[in-house]
Amino acid sequence: MGGYENGDSPASVAGEGGVILGVDGGTTNTVCVCLPAAMPPPESPAAVPVLARAVAGCSNRNSVGESAALETLKLVMTQALSIANTDRSAVRAVCLAVSGVNHPSDQQRMLDWIRDLFPENAKFYVENDAVAALASGTMGKLHGCVLIAGTGSIAYGVTEDGKVARAAGAGPVLGDWGSGYGIAAQALTAVIKAHDGRGQQTSLTGSILEKLELSSPDEIIGWTYADPSWARIAALVPVVVSSAEDGDEVANKILHDSVQELADTVMAVVRRLRLCGEDGKDKFPLVLVGGVLEGNKKWDISGEVIKCISKVFPGTDPIWPEVEPAIGAALLAWSHHRKGFKWENGS
Amino acid sequence: MGGYENGDSPASVAGEGGVILGVDGGTTNTVCVCLPAAMPPPESPAAVPVLARAVAGCSNRNSVGESAALETLKLVMTQALSIANTDRSAVRAVCLAVSGVNHPSDQQRMLDWIRDLFPENAKFYVENDAVAALASGTMGKLHGCVLIAGTGSIAYGVTEDGKVARAAGAGPVLGDWGSGYGIAAQALTAVIKAHDGRGQQTSLTGSILEKLELSSPDEIIGWTYADPSWARIAALVPVVVSSAEDGDEVANKILHDSVQELADTVMAVVRRLRLCGEDGKDKFPLVLVGGVLEGNKKWDISGEVIKCISKVFPGTDPIWPEVEPAIGAALLAWSHHRKGFKWENGS
To answer: Which intervals of the chain form a coiled coil (chains A, B) (predicted)?
Structure first.
């Protein structure tokens, strides 16, 4: 969080030229960071001078509904401004990077809403949360592909000349089977199928019942539909990974299927944008973000995904970002803001 | 509706010995029929003297929540009694056969609730809706297996000595992929995958967009999550069947997968209950119920399911019921009621 010496209070920094907000709105939680609008270009994402950081719940409108999502976004921005000892009047630019924003009409509704919250001359950018995640891995440069696999999953790519493409990110009803939700729902299904005679026995039964403090697979049905939150289902992923690491066949098949889904998702974007060049061998950044892709486990999901993609596109250059997507969002807003004031060409 | 001559008004019939209610509570709608408690054993399901029939919306607690489900059940019973020119005081027995009732605790909560609505000496039976569907095909005899595939799917079996088993019926999150919801969700997923480069092109894209009056596959995401009703998704099944009949490969694969899922579901129950006898060749009734299994289409889903099951269990005896499941539920309540009064041994 370096860049400012002890004597500078956040309030005085914010006062110099206002602030920038970057919001990463996900299905599990929503993070907002506040940067000084007048900061110089940071040498690395880790050197970005963050004035404040606030966290709230789910802001995916497809999961909790539009009004709850907007309330959460408003809350998290208000909290960040308050932590930074400033208020809405100091805001110069905001980038809302929110999961579930899939169509120009979603974007427009959110722009109309956010304009009423801040000063008239502030600038606003509404993007899918994938854009912030890509920026967090590429030092703010919009080029390459990002794969996010947390509660949901999406691949999003941008070419150097600004063409974009995405795959998946359509939620659990529409086939995001590589996501945390997808992995967990398939594990719950495997328990039900083993119980009613349709599927093979699996150690997932014991480990999931223990985790959920239930006594029989029949009770899983009531548990599943008692609360429609996707994040609650996706929280079972570590149980599936453990079972797979312990050699359970069913859990291993679920993870292998999920690896293939995630790899297919990235490859669809890479192909459509020709990120791999005409000969299919150009180097391109692949930013990997989200709980499902975090490493340090024996069963290495992101390693397997990269292995699968690299067989087809040997130029795949994997990046695990050093900073969180909310900082990527803030850097995008900051860079747009600087361009708007014509201080220099975009970084 | 036969059995009573014109001169007998429903009120006078009901007055003789009270009435019986049978309720078939599904995810798409809920049907209640009212029978005279003192009727003689009917010669065939079609000869059952129905005093009244009322229809309401979804009463699956997993889909609309418990309080909305109970409100719907109360409404449909009140309407049926009103149509029969009688009231709650005339009720002698009720069978609630409701989808989403999966556990003794669900059953108990519903029994506690219904007892407060009717006279103290009335009898109440709460079952999964599959039980009523089975009874509607077997003339009230609880023996064999029923496969329901409407919005949801379930197989439920009973042996002659009263053992029961079920498979599936766990809703869309937990792998009911042979259901109407499952077929339609896979078709929507196929459209998304064809659009974003993960799947092959399909005529489902044009036909689903036309049906939903949308202009692009991206808009399907917003449409899907705008309303969580499962029945709304399942209503797309006829579009999938048409595309398959017109030779679309993707639609054909979805229907073939669904046939296999439904056949596996039935076979799991038949195996667990040994409905096919020790040698696997005994005859057993297989009652087929629900929109997905209704015939008269070129692409005959129920015919394919039976073909698939008969290869393994040649004694499969398919029955398409002549009456609706609500009458099955009423016949069960009537038969229990008669037993309770010791008029004769159960039919």
So the answer is: none
- Whether residue B1 is contained in a domain is answered as no
ipTM score here?
Answer: 0.81
Question: How far is the alpha carbon of A62 from chain B, nearest alpha carbon, in Å?
Answer: 5
- pTM to 2 decimals? 0.82
Residue A224: CB atoms within 10 A of its CB come to: 22
Residue A146 lies in a domain: no
B192-235 tens-digit pLDDT? 999 999 999 999 999 999 999 999 999 999 899 888 788 899 99
The structural domain count of chain A equals 2
State the residue range of the domain holding B213: 172-319
Residue entry with tokens 């929109």: B291
Q: Give the gap in angstroms from C-alpha A201 to the nearest C-alpha of chain B.
A: 14
The pair phi, psi for residue B249, each rounded to 5°, is -65, -45
Do residues A223 and A107 both lie within one domain? no
Instruction: Quote the distance between the C-alpha of residue B24 and its chain's center.
Output: 7
Same domain, B262 and B336: no
Say if residue A213 is in the same domain as residue A127: no
Give the 3-state secondary structure of residue A105: helix
Select from B174, B196, B228 the Cβ nearest to the Cβ of A224: B174
Q: In what order do the strands lie in the sheet with B153-158?
A: B164-168, B153-158, B144-149, B284-289, B316-319
Q: If you measure CA to CA, which chain A residue comes closest to B169?
A: A221
**Same domain (yes/no): A132, A213:** no
